[in-house]
Specification:
Elements: H1 11-23, H2 42-53, H3 60-70, H4 75-81, H5 88-94, H6 97-103, E1 104-105, E2 108-109, H7 115-127, H8 131-138, H9 148-152, H10 156-160, H11 174-184, H12 191-203, E3 208-211, H13 218-225, E4 229-234, H14 237-250, H15 254-278, E5 288-298, E6 307-308, E7 314-316, E8 321-326, E9 335-340, H16 343-350, E10 357-358, E11 361-364, E12 367-373, H17 374-378, E13 400-414, E14 417-425, H18 429-452, H19 468-474, H20 485-501, H21 505-521, E15 528-529, E16 536-537, E17 551-555, H22 557-564, E18 580-583, E19 595-598, H23 608-626, H24 645-660, E20 667-672, H25 677-689, E21 692-701, E22 717-725, E23 731-732, H26 734-757, H27 765-780, E24 785-786, H28 791-796, H29 806-821, H30 836-849, H31 855-865, E25 874-876, E26 883-884, H32 887-890, E27 896-898, E28 904-906, H33 932-945, H34 951-961, H35 964-982, H36 992-1006
Parallel strand pairs: 3-4, 3-19, 4-18, 19-20, 23-24
Antiparallel strand pairs: 1-2, 5-6, 5-13, 5-17, 7-8, 8-9, 10-11, 11-12, 13-14, 15-16, 20-22, 21-22, 25-26, 27-28
């Protein structure tokens, strides 16, 4: 019997919910535990598990209605979740005096705060409150749309702006549960009871959900929260720690959370007392430093002074503070001048005034015409490699390091209220002495702290995609090299105090994760954020890379505190079953689960084992105190990565193992996001060889517009493949498979387009591409073999360069079908008469008019249409600034077309083409050059250059096509009217003149008579 998710899935509403959850940033449930890459939205996990357990009935409409009611995603549910906003005045009242003074004015929030800034501010205020204070603040919410009819008239995405997330309410009302139970034949009063009853009915016990790539823990955490028995495993102990913590700290009791909070608070207090006694953060004016700004400096050959490096010397937009550099007579070191500037000068610094690094070159701050390549500065033999004992560069190293600015804070009483005063200043001689003392204090403790695991002692693995740059760009060989001496001293001190106080496993884990969090936000990889009102250091992993920076920041101990305190403001989250977490290779799992839900590695999209080592270096020795059974190593040699035979072989073994450890009527879901058809072909063959068949595929929009690795050429959707064991091994034949794939691709795209037409969720072209790949897998994996070829042999067959498997050929054909199915609105009648290259040009214009600028999407379209050379059709081929050539731009491009009578129209640069009567010889013209659409675009250009008189354009078409012009005229009018609308689209300014010319020409052709 099929399940709900195998027959339908509310992808539009789920996409909107997932987007809302992603946009919550720090307000997401699991992000407070620590950094991980690619956590899937909890609402997607919840919906997937429910969809895999809920049976499909004969009434699909009622099934959908009930499914949405359970998740409070129906109309009544969203109204129930519409709790409104907490007024700014209430936030102000709840904030500390310091926060009030910094962010609030007499009438509410100060101007200039972005939505992200507000979210961070509200989270900061919320987390500082007691549970009782949080409840009182929450009670002050004001429903912004008190009228139900007005609320229901909004689109679903618009409603969600005013709604809590489903995870943050108790679930459906008792009245709604009556309707749910009546339809499903259950007796549940909450989601956990429903999940248990559905599991008992299908499997004879509470459903067991497993994830063998648990990562940040979304899947096991949400499975446990809604009542499943959750099993989580990952090869990486950092992932295991995060997942265990989600279940046992966030999902722990009040006593557990209080124990963690008490230990962390006591450790911070002890560390603060020690730092104060050392005198390394306080000055003689009674101020305390909370931010340190560093930069790298170099002395290129031919330059008699060290050049401090930074892409910008703007320190604070709101505070209007910049750094200027001055020559010092008799010294080869420049002197920083930290100054408050006027708005006019601030604008110049926003424009990178004085920047000393640009496009991998060092620029002389006193002579912008003089620059040096950073790569050349490293020398032919590369940089000196640091030793374990190094904590700062040695004399003679290419890259030196200097502290150039400190932010000092002091609390004063004004009008009877405390106010925090901030001041930026260049370090003076006393500050430099304090900095030297920091190094001395660290060296006294360095060996002991490394031995006990209070600071990192691990070396950085060589020959890693991410770690190699640390060797090459800085000469760093050990993980502690990514931290300044001050950072190592304060972090190490906090670790020493923490593990002297922590007795329980929960407290040890809480302190470990706290150390991981401050490592992320306080390292040589923490860029200084000067923009907006939040002047602070950024996190090291603001993307999925180990970036080496030329300017960076550090935090004082008081600024570290909120980041270290893991559970401040948290309330225990009710987890029905805590589940279990293991750090083990997925090939060795022996745990049986009814449902396996996995988000596997994507052919090295993220190098988890390398990035995770950054945190593992801080956990290292203390991790074994909490988990003696875990291996405190990422075991990179076992990590599933790459895209060759080793990757495929590992994945086949893993999914075969998961299939062995599930009942015959169990299900799997594989969540997958990738735009390369070869990778999709690999995934398909992997699942095929593992004995699984796809029974459904749904594309959910899971990513925000700037989500780390997806920045630039990215897809916004995740395909959720639903799989069962392939019990029968029926043979398949390619000549029968192709039409089935075509039907499935068209069905999948039609369902997504129907949702798009309703405004939800606005899939982009990359998402349609994913859907096409998934639809092909759904067809292909039903068969035990294709044309008699053995599955395992096909997966690991050695192929010549460029040779494609039958599987990949079908996948790529699916893309072609998708491209041909996605007809731009308004061109339905003309489409079938167009050649592939003409269709490519118009589809490219279509996606450009909808804001698509990623070069990869234009290349993927070309692949789908079989166009091998797209450069002549593009005005720009920048990675994230691709533009299609307009009619006027094409007239000046190097395209040669041969007309019906052999006459050529040339677009040679600098040539006045005239009306195409001149004959130009051409070797190998571009396929687009001879197309009717190319002639039509030239006619548009002729109209435009003749002051929008359509007669030259009409005459050109009549001369070019002769008698066939009359048969083509109606199609030309259709195309011209479509081109005429392009100039109205946002961002299509280059088409305004040509669109007007197309409109004039269309009118002339429409009224043309023989």
């Amino acid at each position: 019997m099929p399940t709900f998710i195998e027959t339908q899935f509310p992808i539009a509403r789920l996409s909107a919910e997932a987007y809302k959850e992603r946009k919550a940033n720090n307000g997401q449930t699991l992000t407070r535990l620590g950094k991980w890459w690619g956590r899937k939205p909890l609402i997607l996990v919840r919906a997937s598990i429910l969809g895999m357990l809920m049976p499909a009935s004969n009434d699909a409409k009622k099934d959908r209605e009930i499914f949405l009611k359970i998740l409070t995603m129906d109309d009544d549910g969203t109204w129930q979740r519409c709790k409104g906003e907490i007024p700014a005045a209430a936030w102000r009242e709840a904030a500390t005096p310091e926060v009030q003074a910094e962010f609030f004015g007499a009438r509410g929030l100060k101007q200039g705060l972005s939505d992200e800034d507000k979210e961070a501010l509200f989270t900061r205020i919320w987390e500082a409150l007691s549970p009782e204070q949080q409840q009182a603040l929450d009670a002050q919410r004001m429903r912004p749309i008190p009228d139900r009819a007005e609320f229901d008239a909004l689109s679903y995405a618009e409603r969600l702006v005013h709604c809590k997330r489903p995870e943050n309410i108790d679930g459906p009302t008792s009245t709604i549960w009556v309707d749910i139970n009546t339809h499903l034949g259950t007796t549940a009063t909450c989601l956990a009871e429903l999940i248990d009853q559905l599991g008992q009915r299908t499997f004879g016990h509470t459903p067991r959900v497993g994830d063998s790539f648990c990562g940040g823990g979304s899947i096991p955490f949400e499975a446990a929260r809604i009542g499943c028995e959750a099993f989580a495993s990952d090869l990486n102990p950092v992932a295991g720690l995060l997942t265990w913590s989600s279940l046992n700290l966030l999902g722990g009791s009040q006593d557990v959370q209080e124990d963690v909070t008490r230990v962390q608070a006591a450790a911070l207090t002890a560390a603060d007392q020690q730092v104060t006694a050392w005198g390394i953060e306080h000055n003689e004016q009674g101020e305390r430093a909370d931010a340190y700004l560093y930069c790298v400096e170099v002395k290129p050959e031919g330059c008699d002074y060290f050049i401090p490096l930074a892409p910008s010397w703007l320190i604070g937009e709101k505070s209007r503070v910049v750094a200027r550099w001055q020559r010092v007579p008799g010294s080869d070191r420049l002197k920083p001048d930290i100054a408050v500037v006027s708005e006019d000068e601030l604008a110049l610094y926003k424009g990178k005034k004085g920047a000393t690094v640009d496009d991998s070159r060092v620029i002389d701050p006193f002579d912008a015409n003089r620059s040096w390549s950073i790569e050349a500065l490293r020398g032919p033999d590369g940089l000196r490699l640091w030793s374990n004992d190094d904590i700062v560069p040695r004399v003679g190293d290419v890259f030196q390091e200097r502290l150039y600015c400190i932010r000092w804070v002091k609390t004063v009483i004004r009008n009877g209220k405390p106010k925090e005063i901030r001041r930026y200043a260049a370090p003076d001689s006393a500050d430099l002495l304090r900095d030297a003392k920091v190094q001395s204090l660290l060296r006294e403790r360095f060996n002991e702290w490394q031995r006990k695991g209070f600071i990192p002692s691990k070396s950085i693995p060589e020959q890693g995609a991410e770690t190699d740059r640390l060797f090459r760009e800085r000469g760093w060989t050990h993980w502690h090299h990514l931290f300044t001496p001050r950072q190592l001293l304060t972090h190490g001190l906090l670790a020493e105090q923490s593990f002297a106080l922590a007795r329980s496993k929960a407290a040890i884990v809480g302190c470990l994760l706290g150390l991981g969090r401050i490592a992320n936000w306080d390292s040589r990889g923490s860029a200084w954020m000067w923009h907006g009102s939040n002047e602070k250091g950024d996190q090291t992993f603001n993307n999925q890379a180990l970036n080496t920076l030329v300017s960076y920041s550090g935090r004082g101990l008081e600024k570290i505190g909120p980041t270290f305190r893991l559970l401040d403001g948290a309330s225990p989250i009710k987890v029905a079953n805590t589940g279990s977490t293991a750090v083990v290779d997925a090939r060795d799992l022996t745990n049986a689960c009814d449902l396996w839900i996995t988000d596997p590695p994507y052919a090295d999209a993220v190098n988890y084992h390398e990035l995770g080592d950054f945190f593992l270096a801080w956990y290292d020795k203390q991790l074994t105190n909490a988990f003696p059974e875990w291996t405190p190593d990422a075991r990179a040699q076992l990590a599933v990565r790459g895209n060759g035979d080793d990757f495929r072989r590992s994945m086949v073994e893993i999914y075969k193992n998961l299939a062995r450890h599930m009942p015959d009527h169990g299900l799997q879901m594989v969540m997958f996001t990738h735009k390369d058809p070869a990778v999709w072909a690999d995934l398909g063959m992997i699942l095929w060889a593992a004995g699984l068949k796809a029974t459904a595929a749904w594309t959910i929009s899971t990513e925000t517009e700037a989500a780390g690795i997806k920045k630039g050429d990215y897809v916004q959707g995740t395909v959720c493949l639903v799989l069962r064991k392939r019990v029968a091994n029926e043979p398949g034949f390619l000549d029968e498979v192709y039409p089935l794939v075509e039907d499935e691709v068209k069905r999948q795209i039609a369902s997504m387009q129907a949702l798009d037409e309703g405004g939800e969720p606005n899939f982009n072209d990359a998402d349609y591409q994913l859907a096409a790949y998934a639809a092909a897998l759904k067809v292909l994996t039903q068969y035990g073999n294709l044309d008699g070829k053995d599955v395992e042999h096909e997966v690991f067959a050695v192929r010549a360069k460029g040779e494609k498997s039958d599987f990949q050929a079908v996948i790529e054909r699916a893309l072609g079908i998708a491209c041909d199915t996605l007809i731009p609105r308004g061109l339905e009648n003309a489409w079938r008469d167009l050649s592939l290259v003409e269709r490519y040009y118009l589809r490219s214009l279509d996606i450009e008019s909808r804001g698509e600028r990623r070069k990869g999407m234009y290349e993927e379209l070309a692949r789908g249409f079989g166009v091998t050379d797209i450069k002549p059709l593009l005005k720009s081929d920048k990675a994230n600034g691709t533009r299609v050539a307009s009619a006027s731009a094409l007239a000046a491009s190097v395209l040669v077309a041969v007309g019906h009578d052999g006459a050529g129209i040339a677009g040679q640069t600098g040539t006045n083409v005239g009306r195409g009567r001149g004959r130009v010889a051409a070797a190998g013209p571009h396929p687009f050059a001879a197309s009717p659409l190319r002639h039509l675009l030239f006619a548009v250009r002729e109209t435009a250059v003749n002051d929008n008189s359509p007669e030259p354009g009409r005459q050109y078409l009549r001369d070019t096509f002769g008698q066939s012009y009359w048969g083509r005229r109606e199609g030309f009018v259709n195309l011209l009217e479509w081109l005429a609308a392009l100039g109205n689209a946002e961002g299509m300014g280059e088409w305004v003149a040509d669109s007007e010319a197309a409109r004039m020409l269309a009118g002339r052709l429409r009224n043309d008579h023989a």
